[in-house]
Amino acid sequence: MSKGTLSTTTAKGAAVPAGYAGIHSGIVELLDAARQAAARSVNALMTASYWEIGRRIVEAEQQGKRRAGYGEQLIERLSSDLTGRFGRGFGVNNLENMRRFFLAYPRSVISQTLSGKLRNEVASEKSQAVSGKLSLSDLAHAFTLPWSAYVRLLSVKDDHARQFYEAEALRGGWSVRQLDRQIGSQFYERTALSKNKTAMLVKGAVPKPEDAVTPDDAIKDPYVLEFLDLKDEYSESDLEQALIHRLQDFLLELGEGFTFVGRQRRLRIDQTWYRVDLLFFHRRLRCLVIIDLKLGALTHADVGQMHLYCNYAKEHWTFHDENPPVGLILCADKGHALARYALEGLPSKVMAANYRTVLPDAELLQKELENTRRLLESHATIRPKTRKR
Does the keyword Nuclease feature in the UniProt annotation (predicted)? Predict the structure, then answer.
Protein backbone atom coordinates (compact mmCIF):
# COMPACT_ATOMS: atom_id res chain seq x y z
CA MET A 1 0.00 0.00 0.00
CA SER A 2 1.49 3.39 -0.98
CA LYS A 3 1.86 6.34 1.34
CA GLY A 4 -1.19 8.55 1.74
CA THR A 5 -3.68 5.75 1.06
CA LEU A 6 -4.04 4.38 4.57
CA SER A 7 -7.35 2.67 5.25
CA THR A 8 -9.20 0.95 8.05
CA THR A 9 -11.22 -2.25 8.04
CA THR A 10 -14.89 -2.59 8.98
CA ALA A 11 -16.42 -5.48 10.94
CA LYS A 12 -17.43 -7.02 7.60
CA GLY A 13 -13.81 -6.99 6.42
CA ALA A 14 -14.19 -4.30 3.76
CA ALA A 15 -11.54 -1.61 3.53
CA VAL A 16 -12.61 1.97 4.29
CA PRO A 17 -10.63 4.77 2.58
CA ALA A 18 -8.84 7.26 4.80
CA GLY A 19 -10.96 10.32 5.44
CA TYR A 20 -14.20 8.42 4.85
CA ALA A 21 -15.74 9.62 8.15
CA GLY A 22 -15.42 13.23 7.04
CA ILE A 23 -16.91 12.55 3.62
CA HIS A 24 -19.78 10.57 5.12
CA SER A 25 -20.67 13.18 7.76
CA GLY A 26 -20.50 15.95 5.17
CA ILE A 27 -22.92 14.16 2.84
CA VAL A 28 -25.26 13.43 5.77
CA GLU A 29 -25.28 17.15 6.68
CA LEU A 30 -25.89 18.07 3.03
CA LEU A 31 -28.84 15.69 2.67
CA ASP A 32 -30.36 16.73 6.02
CA ALA A 33 -30.13 20.40 5.02
CA ALA A 34 -31.61 19.66 1.58
CA ARG A 35 -34.53 17.71 3.06
CA GLN A 36 -35.23 20.46 5.60
CA ALA A 37 -35.15 23.07 2.82
CA ALA A 38 -37.48 20.93 0.70
CA ALA A 39 -39.93 20.55 3.61
CA ARG A 40 -39.87 24.31 4.25
CA SER A 41 -40.50 25.02 0.57
CA VAL A 42 -43.40 22.56 0.38
CA ASN A 43 -44.90 23.94 3.59
CA ALA A 44 -44.66 27.53 2.34
CA LEU A 45 -46.33 26.74 -0.98
CA MET A 46 -48.94 24.56 0.72
CA THR A 47 -49.81 27.32 3.20
CA ALA A 48 -49.97 29.88 0.39
CA SER A 49 -52.27 27.60 -1.61
CA TYR A 50 -54.55 27.05 1.37
CA TRP A 51 -54.74 30.81 2.05
CA GLU A 52 -55.73 31.38 -1.57
CA ILE A 53 -58.35 28.59 -1.38
CA GLY A 54 -59.71 30.21 1.78
CA ARG A 55 -59.91 33.58 0.01
CA ARG A 56 -61.87 32.11 -2.88
CA ILE A 57 -64.27 30.32 -0.55
CA VAL A 58 -64.93 33.50 1.45
CA GLU A 59 -65.46 35.60 -1.67
CA ALA A 60 -67.82 32.97 -3.12
CA GLU A 61 -69.75 32.96 0.18
CA GLN A 62 -70.06 36.74 0.07
CA GLN A 63 -71.47 36.59 -3.43
CA GLY A 64 -74.06 34.03 -2.35
CA LYS A 65 -74.71 35.44 1.12
CA ARG A 66 -78.40 35.98 0.42
CA ARG A 67 -78.89 32.22 0.17
CA ALA A 68 -79.25 30.43 3.48
CA GLY A 69 -76.65 27.74 4.03
CA TYR A 70 -74.75 28.60 0.86
CA GLY A 71 -71.36 28.47 2.59
CA GLU A 72 -71.95 24.99 4.03
CA GLN A 73 -73.20 23.66 0.69
CA LEU A 74 -70.21 25.16 -1.11
CA ILE A 75 -67.66 23.58 1.24
CA GLU A 76 -69.36 20.17 1.16
CA ARG A 77 -69.47 20.16 -2.65
CA LEU A 78 -65.85 21.32 -2.90
CA SER A 79 -64.77 18.68 -0.40
CA SER A 80 -66.38 15.91 -2.43
CA ASP A 81 -65.08 17.10 -5.81
CA LEU A 82 -61.54 18.00 -4.67
CA THR A 83 -61.13 14.74 -2.77
CA GLY A 84 -62.17 12.83 -5.88
CA ARG A 85 -59.64 14.77 -7.96
CA PHE A 86 -56.69 15.23 -5.58
CA GLY A 87 -57.17 12.63 -2.83
CA ARG A 88 -56.75 13.35 0.86
CA GLY A 89 -56.45 16.76 2.48
CA PHE A 90 -59.69 18.36 1.34
CA GLY A 91 -62.17 17.20 3.93
CA VAL A 92 -64.84 19.57 5.18
CA ASN A 93 -62.83 20.33 8.34
CA ASN A 94 -59.67 21.18 6.44
CA LEU A 95 -61.51 23.40 3.95
CA GLU A 96 -63.11 25.15 6.91
CA ASN A 97 -59.60 25.65 8.32
CA MET A 98 -58.56 27.30 5.03
CA ARG A 99 -61.57 29.58 5.21
CA ARG A 100 -60.78 30.54 8.82
CA PHE A 101 -57.12 30.99 7.90
CA PHE A 102 -57.95 33.65 5.33
CA LEU A 103 -60.30 35.42 7.76
CA ALA A 104 -57.58 35.43 10.45
CA TYR A 105 -54.92 36.63 7.96
CA PRO A 106 -56.78 38.93 5.54
CA ARG A 107 -55.19 40.46 2.48
CA SER A 108 -54.33 43.69 4.33
CA VAL A 109 -52.26 41.77 6.91
CA ILE A 110 -50.50 39.68 4.25
CA SER A 111 -49.70 42.75 2.11
CA GLN A 112 -48.27 44.53 5.16
CA THR A 113 -46.15 41.50 6.02
CA LEU A 114 -44.84 41.20 2.48
CA SER A 115 -44.09 44.91 2.26
CA GLY A 116 -41.99 44.65 5.42
CA LYS A 117 -40.06 41.64 4.10
CA LEU A 118 -39.42 43.20 0.70
CA ARG A 119 -38.68 46.71 2.01
CA ASN A 120 -34.92 46.32 1.74
CA GLU A 121 -34.99 44.57 -1.65
CA VAL A 122 -34.50 46.51 -4.87
CA ALA A 123 -37.50 45.01 -6.59
CA SER A 124 -40.12 47.35 -7.96
CA GLU A 125 -41.89 44.43 -9.62
CA LYS A 126 -42.31 42.74 -6.23
CA SER A 127 -43.62 45.97 -4.76
CA GLN A 128 -46.21 46.11 -7.49
CA ALA A 129 -47.11 42.46 -6.85
CA VAL A 130 -47.79 43.27 -3.20
CA SER A 131 -50.18 46.05 -4.15
CA GLY A 132 -51.77 44.03 -6.95
CA LYS A 133 -52.63 40.37 -7.33
CA LEU A 134 -50.62 38.08 -5.07
CA SER A 135 -49.05 35.04 -6.69
CA LEU A 136 -48.32 31.82 -4.80
CA SER A 137 -44.64 32.73 -4.85
CA ASP A 138 -45.41 36.09 -3.22
CA LEU A 139 -47.67 34.49 -0.64
CA ALA A 140 -45.06 31.85 0.21
CA HIS A 141 -42.78 34.66 1.43
CA ALA A 142 -45.45 35.78 3.90
CA PHE A 143 -45.86 32.46 5.72
CA THR A 144 -42.80 31.43 7.70
CA LEU A 145 -44.45 28.83 9.93
CA PRO A 146 -45.62 25.43 8.65
CA TRP A 147 -49.30 24.89 7.92
CA SER A 148 -49.71 22.62 10.96
CA ALA A 149 -48.60 25.54 13.16
CA TYR A 150 -51.18 27.87 11.63
CA VAL A 151 -53.87 25.21 12.15
CA ARG A 152 -52.91 25.12 15.84
CA LEU A 153 -52.92 28.92 16.01
CA LEU A 154 -56.45 29.03 14.57
CA SER A 155 -57.68 27.25 17.70
CA VAL A 156 -56.67 30.31 19.76
CA LYS A 157 -59.78 32.49 19.81
CA ASP A 158 -58.25 35.66 21.25
CA ASP A 159 -56.54 37.71 18.50
CA HIS A 160 -53.91 39.17 20.84
CA ALA A 161 -53.00 35.73 22.18
CA ARG A 162 -52.78 34.30 18.66
CA GLN A 163 -50.49 37.12 17.55
CA PHE A 164 -48.34 36.59 20.67
CA TYR A 165 -47.91 32.86 20.02
CA GLU A 166 -47.14 33.45 16.36
CA ALA A 167 -44.52 36.11 17.16
CA GLU A 168 -42.88 33.94 19.84
CA ALA A 169 -42.89 30.90 17.57
CA LEU A 170 -41.10 32.90 14.88
CA ARG A 171 -38.69 34.51 17.34
CA GLY A 172 -37.83 31.32 19.17
CA GLY A 173 -37.99 28.95 16.21
CA TRP A 174 -40.61 26.85 17.98
CA SER A 175 -41.55 23.49 16.59
CA VAL A 176 -45.25 22.64 16.30
CA ARG A 177 -44.87 20.42 19.40
CA GLN A 178 -43.46 23.35 21.37
CA LEU A 179 -46.18 25.69 20.10
CA ASP A 180 -48.86 23.18 21.05
CA ARG A 181 -47.42 22.77 24.55
CA GLN A 182 -47.17 26.53 25.11
CA ILE A 183 -50.76 27.11 24.00
CA GLY A 184 -51.97 24.20 26.13
CA SER A 185 -50.16 25.56 29.20
CA GLN A 186 -51.63 29.06 28.66
CA PHE A 187 -48.19 30.61 28.21
CA TYR A 188 -49.71 33.90 27.00
CA GLU A 189 -51.89 34.32 30.08
CA ARG A 190 -49.09 33.29 32.45
CA THR A 191 -46.68 35.73 30.81
CA ALA A 192 -49.23 38.56 30.99
CA LEU A 193 -49.70 37.96 34.74
CA SER A 194 -46.00 37.50 35.49
CA LYS A 195 -44.04 40.24 37.22
CA ASN A 196 -40.91 39.25 35.30
CA LYS A 197 -42.13 38.92 31.74
CA THR A 198 -38.63 38.87 30.26
CA ALA A 199 -37.65 35.83 32.32
CA MET A 200 -40.87 34.08 31.31
CA LEU A 201 -40.20 34.71 27.61
CA VAL A 202 -36.61 33.50 27.88
CA LYS A 203 -37.69 30.35 29.72
CA GLY A 204 -40.51 29.69 27.26
CA ALA A 205 -38.13 29.87 24.30
CA VAL A 206 -36.05 26.94 25.57
CA PRO A 207 -37.09 23.77 23.69
CA LYS A 208 -37.38 20.37 25.32
CA PRO A 209 -35.59 17.33 23.85
CA GLU A 210 -38.86 15.92 22.52
CA ASP A 211 -39.45 19.19 20.61
CA ALA A 212 -36.58 18.52 18.22
CA VAL A 213 -37.76 18.09 14.63
CA THR A 214 -35.64 15.95 12.33
CA PRO A 215 -35.76 16.20 8.53
CA ASP A 216 -37.67 12.89 8.58
CA ASP A 217 -40.29 14.43 10.89
CA ALA A 218 -40.71 17.39 8.55
CA ILE A 219 -41.07 15.20 5.47
CA LYS A 220 -43.53 12.85 7.23
CA ASP A 221 -45.78 15.65 8.49
CA PRO A 222 -49.34 14.41 7.78
CA TYR A 223 -50.30 17.69 6.12
CA VAL A 224 -47.28 17.50 3.79
CA LEU A 225 -48.12 13.90 2.88
CA GLU A 226 -51.73 14.89 2.16
CA PHE A 227 -50.72 17.91 0.09
CA LEU A 228 -48.37 15.82 -2.05
CA ASP A 229 -50.86 12.91 -2.12
CA LEU A 230 -48.23 10.50 -0.79
CA LYS A 231 -48.87 7.28 1.08
CA ASP A 232 -48.30 7.37 4.82
CA GLU A 233 -46.88 4.05 5.93
CA TYR A 234 -44.43 5.07 8.62
CA SER A 235 -44.09 3.09 11.82
CA GLU A 236 -42.94 4.27 15.23
CA SER A 237 -40.16 1.71 15.62
CA ASP A 238 -38.47 -1.20 13.89
CA LEU A 239 -40.05 -3.63 16.36
CA GLU A 240 -43.53 -2.24 15.78
CA GLN A 241 -43.06 -2.32 12.03
CA ALA A 242 -41.91 -5.95 12.14
CA LEU A 243 -44.77 -6.99 14.41
CA ILE A 244 -47.35 -5.30 12.20
CA HIS A 245 -45.93 -6.94 9.10
CA ARG A 246 -45.99 -10.42 10.67
CA LEU A 247 -49.50 -9.95 12.07
CA GLN A 248 -50.73 -8.70 8.72
CA ASP A 249 -49.47 -11.87 7.04
CA PHE A 250 -50.84 -14.03 9.85
CA LEU A 251 -54.37 -12.65 9.59
CA LEU A 252 -54.40 -13.04 5.82
CA GLU A 253 -53.19 -16.63 6.15
CA LEU A 254 -56.09 -17.49 8.47
CA GLY A 255 -58.35 -17.54 5.44
CA GLU A 256 -61.34 -16.34 7.49
CA GLY A 257 -62.43 -13.57 5.15
CA PHE A 258 -59.86 -10.86 5.94
CA THR A 259 -59.09 -8.48 3.08
CA PHE A 260 -56.21 -6.05 3.54
CA VAL A 261 -57.09 -2.35 3.21
CA GLY A 262 -54.12 -0.38 4.51
CA ARG A 263 -51.36 0.21 7.03
CA GLN A 264 -50.62 3.23 9.22
CA ARG A 265 -53.94 4.82 8.21
CA ARG A 266 -54.15 8.35 9.54
CA LEU A 267 -57.29 10.13 10.66
CA ARG A 268 -57.83 13.62 11.99
CA ILE A 269 -60.36 14.52 14.67
CA ASP A 270 -60.62 18.28 15.17
CA GLN A 271 -56.96 19.36 15.06
CA THR A 272 -55.48 16.11 16.41
CA TRP A 273 -53.93 13.39 14.26
CA TYR A 274 -54.24 9.68 15.05
CA ARG A 275 -52.96 6.59 13.29
CA VAL A 276 -54.31 3.04 13.14
CA ASP A 277 -51.77 0.33 12.50
CA LEU A 278 -53.79 -2.02 10.29
CA LEU A 279 -57.12 -1.78 8.52
CA PHE A 280 -58.89 -4.86 7.14
CA PHE A 281 -62.30 -5.55 5.66
CA HIS A 282 -63.99 -8.78 6.74
CA ARG A 283 -66.00 -10.25 3.89
CA ARG A 284 -68.29 -12.49 5.98
CA LEU A 285 -69.08 -9.81 8.55
CA ARG A 286 -69.10 -7.05 5.92
CA CYS A 287 -67.33 -4.64 8.21
CA LEU A 288 -64.01 -2.89 8.68
CA VAL A 289 -61.64 -4.33 11.28
CA ILE A 290 -59.39 -1.71 12.88
CA ILE A 291 -56.25 -3.10 14.51
CA ASP A 292 -54.08 -1.07 16.87
CA LEU A 293 -50.82 -2.38 18.33
CA LYS A 294 -49.52 -1.23 21.72
CA LEU A 295 -45.95 -2.01 22.78
CA GLY A 296 -46.75 -1.22 26.40
CA ALA A 297 -49.39 -2.39 28.85
CA LEU A 298 -53.04 -1.91 27.88
CA THR A 299 -54.69 1.12 29.50
CA HIS A 300 -58.24 2.49 29.72
CA ALA A 301 -57.10 5.31 27.42
CA ASP A 302 -56.21 2.74 24.74
CA VAL A 303 -59.71 1.26 24.94
CA GLY A 304 -61.32 4.70 24.75
CA GLN A 305 -59.13 5.61 21.81
CA MET A 306 -60.19 2.48 19.95
CA HIS A 307 -63.86 3.37 20.43
CA LEU A 308 -62.99 6.80 19.03
CA TYR A 309 -61.45 5.12 15.97
CA CYS A 310 -64.53 2.93 15.49
CA ASN A 311 -66.91 5.88 15.72
CA TYR A 312 -64.82 7.84 13.23
CA ALA A 313 -64.61 4.88 10.84
CA LYS A 314 -68.36 4.33 11.09
CA GLU A 315 -69.01 7.91 10.00
CA HIS A 316 -66.23 8.43 7.46
CA TRP A 317 -64.94 5.08 6.19
CA THR A 318 -68.00 2.81 6.23
CA PHE A 319 -70.33 2.49 3.23
CA HIS A 320 -74.09 2.55 3.73
CA ASP A 321 -74.52 -1.20 3.11
CA GLU A 322 -71.78 -2.28 5.55
CA ASN A 323 -71.97 -3.23 9.22
CA PRO A 324 -70.38 -1.09 11.96
CA PRO A 325 -66.59 -1.47 12.27
CA VAL A 326 -64.97 -3.52 15.00
CA GLY A 327 -61.73 -2.72 16.80
CA LEU A 328 -58.96 -5.08 17.87
CA ILE A 329 -56.33 -3.94 20.37
CA LEU A 330 -53.15 -6.03 20.46
CA CYS A 331 -50.96 -5.45 23.49
CA ALA A 332 -47.35 -6.59 22.99
CA ASP A 333 -45.96 -5.66 26.40
CA LYS A 334 -42.73 -7.58 27.05
CA GLY A 335 -43.50 -10.87 28.76
CA HIS A 336 -47.23 -10.44 28.29
CA ALA A 337 -49.57 -10.39 25.31
CA LEU A 338 -53.22 -9.44 25.21
CA ALA A 339 -55.81 -9.24 22.44
CA ARG A 340 -59.08 -7.43 23.07
CA TYR A 341 -61.97 -6.74 20.75
CA ALA A 342 -63.92 -3.49 21.08
CA LEU A 343 -67.48 -4.69 20.49
CA GLU A 344 -69.39 -2.52 22.96
CA GLY A 345 -70.34 0.00 20.29
CA LEU A 346 -72.30 -2.47 18.16
CA PRO A 347 -76.09 -1.91 17.84
CA SER A 348 -77.10 -5.21 19.46
CA LYS A 349 -75.76 -8.02 21.63
CA VAL A 350 -76.77 -10.49 18.90
CA MET A 351 -74.45 -8.75 16.44
CA ALA A 352 -71.65 -8.71 19.03
CA ALA A 353 -72.09 -12.44 19.62
CA ASN A 354 -71.98 -13.10 15.88
CA TYR A 355 -68.81 -11.09 15.54
CA ARG A 356 -67.15 -13.12 18.31
CA THR A 357 -68.08 -16.35 16.53
CA VAL A 358 -66.59 -15.33 13.19
CA LEU A 359 -63.52 -13.36 14.28
CA PRO A 360 -60.30 -15.19 15.25
CA ASP A 361 -60.12 -16.27 18.87
CA ALA A 362 -58.33 -13.74 21.09
CA GLU A 363 -56.15 -16.45 22.64
CA LEU A 364 -54.95 -17.49 19.19
CA LEU A 365 -53.96 -13.91 18.44
CA GLN A 366 -52.19 -13.57 21.79
CA LYS A 367 -50.20 -16.75 21.15
CA GLU A 368 -49.15 -15.52 17.70
CA LEU A 369 -48.18 -12.15 19.16
CA GLU A 370 -46.00 -13.80 21.83
CA ASN A 371 -44.34 -16.12 19.32
CA THR A 372 -43.68 -13.28 16.88
CA ARG A 373 -42.16 -11.06 19.53
CA ARG A 374 -39.89 -13.81 20.84
CA LEU A 375 -38.77 -14.60 17.30
CA LEU A 376 -38.00 -10.96 16.53
CA GLU A 377 -36.14 -10.44 19.80
CA SER A 378 -34.06 -13.58 19.25
CA HIS A 379 -33.10 -12.35 15.78
CA ALA A 380 -32.14 -8.98 17.26
CA THR A 381 -29.75 -10.65 19.74
CA ILE A 382 -28.25 -13.04 17.18
CA ARG A 383 -27.69 -10.50 14.39
CA PRO A 384 -24.84 -8.49 16.05
CA LYS A 385 -22.93 -11.74 16.75
CA THR A 386 -23.05 -12.84 13.11
CA ARG A 387 -21.72 -9.49 11.99
CA LYS A 388 -18.53 -9.95 13.99
CA ARG A 389 -17.49 -13.08 12.09
Answer: yes
